[in-house]
Amino acid sequence: MSEFEIKDASKAIYKDVCDYFDANGLSYDKDEAHLVVISKFSGDDLPVNMIIEVTEGLNLLSIISPMPFTVSEDKRIDVALAVVAANNGVRNGAFDLDLDSGRVVYKVCDLITDGKAGKDLLDYLFSISLNMIDDYNDKFFAVSFGAISVAEFIEWNKNK
To answer: Nearest to residue 107, comparing CAs of 116, 98, 117, 119?
Structure first.
């Protein structure tokens, strides 16, 4: 195998994710045909939904967390500015806003070159995801309903 070929271990990575959830007593739904795990967690203020997907053939593990609200059309530019400000300090992963639908998501991915999603990697990915989402989801929600301004969000983000 050349250095550019990656052995497809996506099913093994998916099994590692399911085993991780089982070992930690976490509830989840799974779609084995699409290598997807869906789980919900309780945040400090809003629920945290996570979709964990392994891209077959690429060994790419993605965590996608849609926020539990939709931004109204008249607030999408404000939330887009807040998303840009938030992403300025994010070291791993990113927030995205779909301007057409008004959905905000957090995404983080990792290419698993050795074909194993070990406990340390999964601890790290879930920890940063839960922390980022829990820190920001209520603030994006507040901007989306005009409870705080973009300027207030940016100031909060600077002092975070």
So the answer is: 98
Task: Please tell me the number of Cα atoms within 13 Å of 78 on its side-chain side.
Answer: 20
H helices present in 5-149, as ranges: 10-23, 76-89, 119-144
Does 85 map to a domain?
Answer: yes
Q: What is the mean pLDDT of the chain?
A: 92
- Where the chain has pLDDT below 50, the residues are 1-4
> 131 is written with which tokens?
């922390």
Number of structural domains (the chain) is 1
- Show the domain range for 140: 10-159
pTM for this prediction: 0.88
CATH number at residue 67: 3.30.1460.70
How many C-beta atoms lie closer than 10 Å to residue 53's C-beta? 20
Let me know if residue 5 belongs to a domain.
no
